[in-house]
Write a structure and sequence with these properties.
Layout: H1 17-34, H2 42-60, H3 65-76, H4 81-90, H5 96-108, H6 112-124, H7 128-140, H8 147-153, H9 159-171, H10 177-186, H11 192-200, H12 208-216, H13 224-234, H14 240-249, H15 255-267, H16 271-283, H17 288-294, H18 301-314, H19 319-328, H20 337-344, H21 349-362, H22 368-372, H23 380-398
Amino acid sequence: MVVYSLCIVNRKGYMSRVLIFKLLITFLVSCMLTTASYALEGDDAKELVREAIQVAKELRASESYYDQYAGAGILVDIGDKDSLQFLVDGLADNDWVLMRSAIDTLLTVRHPYGLDVLYRYAEQTTDAIFMKFLSESLASRPRDDLSEFLIRLIESDDEWVKKHAMQSLASSEYPGKEQLMTNLGDDHNQDPLTRAYGYYGLIGTDSESYAVKELLSITDNWGADALEVLAVALGQHDSQETRLRLKELRAANTYKIQIAAMASQAGFGNEEATETLISIIANGKGLDPSVAAASLRRMNPGTVSAITAELLKCCELDSDTGTRLLESWEKIDGDPTALYNWGFNHKNPDIQMQTVWLVGARGDAEHAPSIASMLTSPDSGIRAMASWAIVRLFGEKYAPELSV
């Protein structure tokens, strides 16, 4: 960083020592906050990609299966066919943790063959566990390009598979969505949860007004899962009627419905709901804090930024809650700099690792310098995530120039 001289003088024509000291402190603090906020280019970025690829190769050669999967996922993104085959073989692994790792990795790689081989395997397998894992992963990270496959899963006899297929379809964009969601919502032969997701999927379409009307007609006898979907869906349409229904849902007997309704209220600017949500994230018990933190992903950028700022200022977040908070920022159109500063300097390795993931997932290349040093971390998970993020940020441009 280039430092320019500061010509600030007092009335006697010389700079006060106190003023000089204050300016120096201000400048040093500014440097500390912005050191990691500049984009790498050219040879520096290329060298960083080279180092990241080397880390991925070392992980791929590790004795740990988990490191091998992490390394393979990174190398697939730069076209490594052996790593792709390794992941494909993992889809049939008897170890369910490794099977899930293979599924999640193939869903996130950029290499076009990754999704293709996953789709082909899903077409031919009869493994019920595989289908459960795949549908659950797609519900967490919807893929528009798998809509045809997901539509077929709606006919599954496995309620778990059907539920997550509907969750993914309701959150994705694909040709014919409006008609499909309308048909499912209006089909009285379908179970209540499927119908609720059908109407939820119409939010944001030309049929939104009709969908909200039908959602508001959902009664308690539809079941807790359908009411939770209702609480989430109503948070996407602000009106007097939806606010009143959300107030009623806050009094539900099931806590997950209460949290879903509370998050929707917070998204509308309800101060009491916002304060309660922050309290749950900071001090809640069991899974409640992580569920509440994950709900931020469906709020507007201003609300998410305000809640995040308060959490970083007031609270000591545990590993699970902190990672969910970071995860919720993936597609938020806001400035995550304060969150990055918190995450990179956190003592918890899981939170550090999720912060690195967020940089790569959002494509915030200006924060790559903060990741570079993590390529030598003694924690293999952090090394793997740093390698993945760097390849995700710069690999498409620079990896083809390297001898890999």
